[in-house]
Amino acid sequence: MMKVKHIFHTLFVAVAVATVCTACTFEQEDFFDESASLRITHLNEQLQQRLVSQSSDGNNGWVIQYFVAGTDDLDFEGFNLFGRFYDSGQVTLASNHRFLRNGNANKYTEASSTYEMLSEEGPVLAFNTWNDVLTVFVDPVSPSSAPNTIVSDGEGMNGDHNLVLKSLEDDEILFRGERHSAEVRFIPCDRTWEEYIDATAQLKSKIATAALTSYYVTNGVDTMYFSGLNRGSFLYCDRVDNPLVRKTLACVFTPDGFRINHVDSLGEYAFQTFTIDADTTCLQNEDQSVKVIACWDRYIANHTAVWKMDPSSFTAEQQSLYDQIAEQLLKANKNYVLESIGIGKTSSGNAVNGLVLTFYSNANKTRTNAAGLSLSIVCSAYGQIQLVSTPEDAYDNNMNAISRNVPEILALTRQFAATLSGTYDVVPDDYFLPTGGVFTAVNGGTTFKLN
Predict the structure, then answer these.
(1) pLDDT-based confidence at 140, cuts 50/70/90?
(2) In whole angstroms, what is the distance from residue 136 CA to residue 100 CA?
(3) pLDDT surpassing 80 at residue 254
């Protein structure tokens, strides 16, 4: 009996407490609903005023750094959109992004539509009618310029046209997509929209190309990599080849760098925006604690173009060998005039990466040819290149054919390669896409220049 009484007593107390709590909650919700509603209304008014003010005559409207929410199947780059907002509820958007329809892909395009300020759980900027620039990211039907990019549940590119306010500052307004939660950032545009597009394209071509796509990400202690940055959707990984640790990031390019889709970190240092430094050797994050440096040393080791050695940097031994090689070429064919010796990849059959002889192959000196001998080129540490030559080095078909007639030329070329064997500190002529540089010997080899 005591046990039953105890249970009923407990239930009575629980019901009483629940009743009191329910009453308190109701009264508080009443109070806070009204306060929150007014607060959201005022924020909406302030937000619209800011959007319209920056769009007025004498200003250039907004750059909208727009991201869609990636999935396991889809990862898109970020997009630069541009906007002007009017008190009337009209908005003009513009872009040259690759998903514009009706033949406008990659062409500067403007489109007008309407917007409104919604009061939901917070202020919401809603683009509530179709706009050719923006709505393509929201349409569940994937654009024809993006084959195989419709996700299985029919959500298209996972974009948002309702943007929930996160923060409102003088220099930026941050939103998140209401449905897919990607960050969208508005910043005042400091030039005309087409000028911004052109300046961004120039910067991107400077720091990110199809030829050089990997970058060191370092804080001075830890090092990771950005791989495939030129695509705008890229890997943040522990190594470039066969990474064990990897995740996908997206970025928008700017006239002075790029910004990724969310804050990330290396060690204890956070980063999101990278800006090219004054001497154009790297990009730095907001507080300069993290640097992004093109893997130009890796590019040197793997590039396919032929970089010619500057004869003014030859040692006496190298000059003598060069002259002897030139003499032997003439023995092989009176039209073979040695033009240069360099490092790179030959294009003839059985192509090799290594030491390359470039020579004129006709009397008028209008057609060049090349013959190559393998020379191992290794990235031994950041900013260093190691050159290794061995008697077993392979050679391409041109070198093979010439050496069959003039055996001495193969031995002379190997001797020249041996003078270069060593480790070098390298100062490239361009830190993002070098075409030459100074190779300073630090362990064996001889200092030389490529151009």
Answers:
(1) confident
(2) 7
(3) yes
Assign 3-class secondary structure to 110-149: EEEEECEEEECCCEEEECCCCCCCCHHHCCCCCCCCCCCC
Distances (CA, A) of 133 to 115, 139, 326: 14, 12, 61
pLDDT band at 445 (very low <50, low <70, confident <90, very high): very high
Q: Are 260 and 251 in contact (CB under 8 A)?
A: yes
Residue located via tokens 């000028």? 195
Is-contact 227 247, C-beta < 8 A? no
Kindly report each contact of residues 77-80 with a partner whose C-beta sits within 8 Å and lies 24 or more positions away, as own/partner: 77/231, 77/232, 77/233, 77/250, 77/251, 77/252, 78/232, 78/250, 78/251, 78/252, 78/259, 78/260, 78/261, 79/137, 79/252, 80/196, 80/197, 80/200, 80/252, 80/253, 80/254
Q: What is the dihedral of CA 116, 117, 118, 121, to 10 degrees?
A: 150
Segment 366-382, tens digit of pLDDT: 889 999 999 999 988 89
Least confident of 9-13, 101-105, 408-412: 9-13
The token duo for 226 is 């950005």
Confidence of residue 37 (pLDDT cuts 50, 70, 90): confident
Whole-number Å distance between alpha carbons of 219 and 270: 10
Q: How far is CA 367 from CA 35, 240, 339, 402, 450, in A?
A: 81, 38, 11, 17, 22
Tokens of 364: 């008028």
What is the rounded CA–CA span in Å between residue 258 and residue 303? 25
Instruction: Write out the two tokens for 68.
Output: 């869609």
pLDDT value, residue 153: 57
Q: 390, 360, 354: which is closest to 372 by C-alpha?
A: 354
Q: Which among 401, 385, 418 has a CA at the least distance from the CA of 346?
A: 401
Give the pTM.
0.85
pLDDT tens-digit map of 101-120: 999 999 999 999 999 999 98
Helix (H, G, I), strand (E, B) or coil at 84: strand
Dihedral class, residue 379 (left if φ above 0, else alpha if ψ from -120 to 50, else beta) = beta
Identify the CA nearest to 172 among candidates 42, 64, 41: 64
* C-alpha separations of 420 from 59, 136, 304, 451 in Å: 58, 56, 19, 16
SS3 assignment for 187-200: EECCCCHHHHHHHH
Contact 121, 37 (CB under 8 A): no
